[in-house]
Target: ATP-binding cassette domain-containing protein
Amino acid sequence: MIRLQNLTLQRGPQRLLEGAELTLHAGQKVGLIGANGAGKSSLFALLRGELGPDAGDCQLPADWRIAHMRQEIDTLERLAVDYVLDGDLALRRVQAELASAEAAHDGSAVARLHAELDSVDGYSADARARKLLAGLGFSHEQMDRRVGDFSGGWRMRLNLAQALMCPSELLLLDEPTNHLDLDAILWLEDWLKSYPGTLLLISHDRDFLDSVVNHVAHLEQRKLTLYRGGYSAFERARAERLAQQQVAYEKQQAQRAHMEKYIARFKAQATKARQAQSRIKALERLEELAPAHVDSPFDFTFRESDKVSTPLLSLSEGRLGYGDKTVLDKLKLSLAPGARIGLLGPNGAGKSTLIKTLAGELEPLGGRLQRGENLAIGYFAQHQLDALDDQASPLLHLQRIAPAEREQTLRDFLGGFDFRGPRCDEPVLNFSGGEKARLALALIAWEKPNLLLLDEPTNHLDLEMRLALTMALQEFAGAVLVVSHDRHLLKSTTDEFLLVAEGRVVEFEGDLDDYARWLIDYRSRQQPSSAPSPGAADKTDKRAQRQAAAALRQQLAPHKKQADKLEQDLGMLHQQLATLETRLGDSALYEAARKDELRELLAEQSRLKSREGELEEAWLEALETLEALQQQLAATE
Model:
């Protein structure tokens, strides 16, 4: 088990844990949550032995192997599949020793190392590595490309695959879903559910946590509190504790009043009816959710547009893509005010291509794209974080788009995104990915959009900010088109789904559970086309056969040598017994004067007979082993 006792952990002047207690049993799957900067990653470093406790104890079983997802890449020239295989250190050690033994023509060492290679599943290692890569979205062609050929997000997928490849009793994963799409997240969920060891997982994806973990460890106010169940169970349990506080009650009532006002305003309007229904559903959940997040630093809304057009945007016979490459064809889409659409589809199917085209970053290759007169788009994508001015502060960013607005009004608005006091005036150069994402969303929210195009808006956002974004989108009166791997956000803010797959965009009749089943069927249909060609398969099989035959021949040599030696020893023993029996045939030996000599010869005969039986048994076993290996060799050649 893992046991933290009266643990104090400090990084520089900041005390992260003080008198913390935590006990985790082998096989438990635990989600580690807490505010950014609370010390989650430092706790991982402590468990890996990279940090020591400032006070108290951190105890782990000495024989546990620990695997973790690295945040950096130290080699760019390795092939992707080889980089993943490097995660299995025991495998790489045996392979290196085997290569040395073969170079030295050490048959005994080669035989021993082949047996050791089999014990670490070395013969199936390449297939297992490729299966991990396929699950995380890599094509067969990508698996044999250099690590340096991949972008940062795909390199993080390689680090994740390397961690999963490593045999371990403890697996530490820090934000593994940050660079994954929904397809890969669903695959990873299944993999982690079957992981037999102890899992400690840092994640801001509540549905992912609910699906994978059976306990939640909450790091708050330098203490660790362990809750039974997934994230939803934690949320309810914490809400029960905080609901007794008056501030929780007051905040809850204020949010309820705000939602009820919206429902009363729009429920009777046909064009707003679906949105009102969404708020009613949210209102039903508010009572248990609000107290759990009473201490959230985020509280914002998207300012409503002054004018709208109907439709906001329409596309007919659209052909979308890049240059001469068509990604989507014969596309028909109309976005009306109040539409709330989630885009689903496999990785690379064209979801981002569609959003970029609607946002005006890509021109359609064909068809007609018509924009409403009063269309105001708020577009969020990850590359926009890099477009922020590193030398400008959050306040200056907002002043550039609202030069006539009072400074205090802008500061109050930024405060809802947790940019307060001096943080408002600091340049974004050293901001984290989460802080940059919050600033980009703040700039969009200020601009009064009537259509939000959101491409993975929750990347880098913590749980509290994700909830605040969800609430803001629920209250947003305009249209929303969103791509996200956060299923809670999709379920809470969209009313319909469009499926982007195989060059088409069609309405998806079903929920996210139906989509998960669709993905399984889609992958099975894609398997024949993604499988190696028969010629390549034959080549792979023949190479594997040659390798197996060579390994068997290496194993044959020491076994044959042993059998020959046993046969030789047995022959010498038979000669000794024959000589002894000749001496025992001498009648003079049985006279009284030679009784001591007779006794010694009979004792020697007994000893040799016993040794004969042992050698015969060992020789027969060696012959059986040798015969079995020869039969295997004949079958492979």
